[in-house]
Amino acid sequence: MLALRELTLSHFRSHRVARLSLDGRPVAIHGRNGAGKTNILEAVSMLSPGRGLRRATVDEMIRRPEGVGWKVTATLQSLHQLHEVETWVEAGGSRQLRIDGKTAPQVALGRIARIVWLVPVMDRLWVEGADGRRRFLDRMTMSFEPNHADAVLTYEKAMRERNRLLKDGQRDAHWYAALEHQMAVAATEIIANRKAALHQLIAAQAEAETAFPTAELSLIQPDDTDLPESETDLAQAFTENRPRDLMAGRTLIGPHRTDLGAIYSNKGIAARDCSTGEQKALLVSLILANSRALARDFGAPPILLLDEVAAHLDAGRRAALYDEVCAIGAQAFMTGTGPELFAELGDRASHIEVSEADGSSHIEEVTT
Question: CATH for 124-297, among 3.30.360.10, 1.20.1050.90, 3.90.1530.10, 3.40.50.2300?
Answer without folding.
Answer: 1.20.1050.90
